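Contributing new records

If you add data, match the layout below exactly. Sequence lines come first and carry their own label; structure lines follow with theirs. Keep one chain per record. Anything else will be rejected by the validation script.
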Amino acid sequence: MSHWPDKYVIGLTGNIATGKSVVRKMLEHLGAYSIDADSLANRAMAKGAPAYQPVVDIFGSWILDTGKEIDRKKLGQLVFGAPDALRQLEEIVHPYVGQAIDLLVKRSKHDVIVIEAIKLLEGDLASKCDSIWVANASRSLQLTRLMEKQKLSEADAKQRIQAQGAQKDKIDAANIVINNTGSFEDLWKQVVAGWGEIALDSTDNAATEIVRETKRGDFSVQRGHPRNSEGIAELMTRLGKIKMDAGDVMAAFGEKAFFLLQMDGKLVGLAGWQVENLVTRTTDLYINGDISSDEGLKALVEEIEKASKSLQSEASLLFLNTQFAAEEAVLKNLGYEKRTPRSLGIQAWQEAAEEKPDTESTLFFKQLRIDRVLRPI
């Protein structure tokens, strides 16, 4: 049994750029509550948070940016090239991350928890888990992903990879290995198969709950599933004037979730959203022009908020195009206000807001909860 009564806890690890986060997101689609330990570590070092001053005291004020926040790129260049420095950093930050994980697990209403942590096996966290999952990829794929997705130079990417422990040691400790070397469809099949091995009756309930349908006025809203990829792609292509196919949508499921808006059994709209680092970001919103966009908008946003609160999200960010940004009265009634990223104050919220989608959009913000994890002291 895991460290937490009545919870089945999956510890998810793997070296850098092996696709841990994609696997974690897929487990969310199946009904798990997910925790990203690395994001919690970044939060612990935010200005005013408990690890901030000890890190500055050890490594010096040169690691601060113009806003007096810790510049994680500078810090990373230092610690990934010096094992002793990395160890010092972990000794400061890891206890706070452990406290935050404990709080989130205890507060979660989900039966299955997945904790993604690159250093899962090096500390005592693995002993608190019921099952160890390891994401695996070749070194050449790791290098390519770091250079393409994180825009690292080849030298920096190799340095990050070399700073990790041996991937073989992680695989040897695994109950389940997920090979992230092929298509998203293949990856999804592996994750579903692994989920099926969880010996817990309540996982069936969790998976059923995740695809529930909610009636809201003339509309029904349900959670999208990879099997809906073709319909989602058709609607996004038609309304968004962008070329999407089922494969593109399957890939998107590795990063976000979808709510599908239906009327009389037909798909008439959707929202693409994600909760990362306890912040909700809604970046895709489409509604047929021949229906009431304000009622459709309200139905989708309310479902996103409901799901976000169950995932313990602290804030909701809506990135809206001209059509929906004009619905300011509807958004105000829902508790949202037009904001700029810098006006949000909290580093994690600002960073999420600065990751704007490619299209021109207006940011609307709503705080979902007052009690924040690793709040400033």
